[in-house]
Recover the amino acids of this structure.
């Protein structure tokens, strides 16, 4: 007998059926399974009644959720895992259900991924081409449900006490700018995003009552004039949307627009330099084949080189959300 570890098909089968797992998680959110458990539904019968489905289907769904370690049954009654309890219970401050469902509209397209991978056309704006205000509003309901937490994290990590104005490139709902304004009454910010998104950003600015500090300007950061009175530039969660030359150009444009002595923060899903993962950035990069853009996953080394070529100094990489997001920073010489 050889000592070599025998291989089997289990890992491959689990990956092949991964979309069944996604659909169970998404159905759990849509049907309110995790909210019902948090509210005390502890058995199949109680869940069935709370979700208005049959006990058989309640058992089927919750069994998969237990196998995925989303739900446990320690005392003979269902309980949510800690992350589920914090992020998937509707009505709780951390509720991120809309973000977990953000990719679902692409469901059918992912079923045709091979066709998209055979496509040889590329467009600069990809999914954002022809974006309407209505579509932008739907998209940013999801991004704000996760972005507000990221914005709070940014404000906790970065000292803005000596800064005056933020340029929030592709700022979406304005989550980062809104949090900075709430934390520091001396800080102003401009959310610079595509015109339909700027309309939506203004709605969030009003909702959070920061209109005296934060404004939104509609424009394309790859080609339109950027404000030149900012000493902080943030670009968050845009990285896989564009090719290496385009991201390099946008970083250069941000450098040119910043005031001398200003700082830039690029927050994005970066790949390890040997391209071995993590899976999240790799998947976001692949999804750009479906969006028909030039985008792909960028490595940490790619990002450092964009900053160096633009002229930034004190360039550094910081962990932003472990295993998911890095924050690359640089300073424009005074
Ligand atoms: C995933 S969202 C991130 C929003 C926000 N930064 C956050 O982290 O919550 C990406 C944003 O980039 C914007 N964007 C993409 N390409 C852009 C461009 N060329 N010019 C301006 N904004 C752009 C999109 O409209 C969208 O609002």
């Amino acid at each position: 007998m050889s000592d070599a570890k025998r291989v089997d098909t289990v890992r491959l089968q689990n990956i092949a059926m991964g979309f069944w797992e996604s659909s169970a998680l998404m159905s759990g959110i849509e049907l309110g399974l995790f909210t019902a458990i948090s509210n005390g539904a502890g058995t199949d019968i109680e869940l069935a009644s709370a979700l208005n489905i049959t006990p058989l289907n309640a058992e089927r769904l919750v069994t998969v959720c237990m196998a995925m370690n989303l739900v446990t049954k320690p005392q003979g009654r269902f309980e949510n895992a800690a992350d589920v309890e914090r992020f998937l219970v509707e009505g709780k401050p951390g509720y991120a259900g809309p973000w977990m469902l953000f990719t679902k509209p692409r469901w059918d397209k992912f079923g045709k991924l091979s066709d998209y991978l055979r496509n040889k056309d590329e467009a600069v704006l990809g999914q954002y081409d022809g974006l309407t205000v209505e579509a932008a509003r739907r998209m940013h309901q999801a991004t704000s449900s996760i972005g507000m937490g990221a914005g709070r994290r940014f404000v906790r990590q970065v000292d803005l006490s000596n800064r005056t104005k933020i340029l929030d490139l592709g700022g979406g709902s304005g989550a980062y700018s809104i949090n900075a304004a709430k934390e520091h009454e001396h800080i102003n910010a401009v959310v610079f995003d595509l015109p339909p998104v700027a309309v939506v950003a203004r709605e969030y600015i009003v909702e959070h009552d920061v209109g005296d500090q934060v404004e939104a300007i509609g424009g394309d950061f790859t080609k339109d004039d950027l404000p030149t009175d900012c000493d902080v530039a943030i670009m968050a969660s845009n990285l896989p949307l564009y090719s290496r030359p385009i991201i390099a150009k946008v970083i250069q444009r941000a450098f040119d627009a910043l005031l001398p002595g200003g700082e830039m923060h690029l927050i994005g899903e970066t790949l390890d330099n040997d391209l071995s993962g993590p899976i999240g950035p790799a998947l976001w990069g692949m999804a750009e084949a479906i969006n028909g853009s030039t985008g792909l996953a960028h490595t940490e080394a790619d990002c450092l080189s964009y900053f160096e070529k633009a002229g930034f100094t004190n360039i550094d990489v910081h962990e932003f959300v472990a295993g998911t997001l890095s924050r690359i920073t640089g300073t424009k010489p005074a």
Remarks:
- The pocket of S-adenosylmethionine is lined by residues 128, 143, 147, 150, 170-173, 175, 193-194, 197, 220-222, 236-238, 241 (CB under 6 Å).
